[in-house]
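Last lecture ended with a question: if I hand you only a sequence, what can you say about the shape of the protein? Today we answer it with a concrete record. The protein is Queuine tRNA-ribosyltransferase. Below, first the input exactly as provided, then the predicted structure, then a couple of comments.
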Amino acid sequence: MEFNLQKIDGEARAGSIKLAHGEVLTPIFMPVGTQASVKALDFKDLLELDCPIVLANTYHLYLRPSDEVVAKLGGLHNFSKFPRNFLTDSGGFQAFSLGGNVKVQEEGIVFKSHIDGSKHFFTPKKVLDIEYNLNSDIMMILDDLVGLPASKERIKESINRTSLWAKEAIEYHTFKKEQFKNEGRELSNNIFAINQGGTDREFREMSARDLTSMGEFDGYAIGGLAVGEPNELMYETLSFTVPLLPKNKPRYLMGVGTPRDIIEAIYRGVDMFDCVMPTRNARNGTIFTHFGKLSIKSSRFKLDDNPLDSKCSCYTCQNFSRAYLHHLFRAGEMSYFRLSSIHNLAFYLKLVRDAREAILKGEFRRLYQEICEIYN
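The predicted structure:
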């Protein structure tokens, strides 16, 4: 993997990440394709949106259809026919969200499948082996995620455990790279570490110190945010956490968020994002536009012949009216899910592209203020 910083405007950064399946220009938003599929869309839709990277989930693909099946069918790229890059989450968030079905131990995470109740055990090495089978371009390592608010004891425990697992992961990944090299092959998978620590400056520093002392991870993520804390506290935490991470590596804020969250994080130096919000909100009737959010279920759109967003050039906005989308939603038509998801993802991808262009021109602050006003 090669990461190049092309321009910095304040703390906001424009760069490029060269991966095995193509270049990713940053800042970038990654649509969530948990099951190697972005809900309601196929990958032709994503290619038409010029999406360079999609997030898939290790936990879900391990359970169904299984990483062995995906490996036999040529990895995620051949299996799904999406020719560009995949990032795979480690399953740490699923462990957090499964609640009572999970037991965190020093060696790893014991969990019961949400599908059939069967018991499984994820260790740092096990997670990487699954991700090697999936052949994702960027692999997130196993971490211990804590919801907020949480006690200082629990947060410190999560940092220690996450650091222990990170050390196991980087050592195992280094071993695998040597193994491939000895066999005359090259391992093209890259690993990102995950900084934890809640909203506590001292804990975030501790986590960053641990992770950066272990060797060269390919990138660094910020985890454990947008899990119950107020937005302003999340922004404050980003302000003191982002500078702790290496400047010459991509910085990834996991699972965040609204257009305002993304622009605030770019303002503070974050490069990569993912969130279910654009597609989930689309399916529930919430549309993101250059003028703010709108609820397509509202009866005021029944006779509205305008596109969802007059400043959007996506397939949906070029071909269909608010009235038609309102009708599809009210009628429960499945085509609504696709058309609204295309638009919301187009909006998110344009947001990060506009941010990149503004950074390159040295005009990011103007865009930042504009988005903050619209999505206050």
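Comments.
1. The chain has two domains: 2-274, 277-375.
2. Residues 2-274 form a domain with the TIM Barrel fold (CATH 3.20.20.105).
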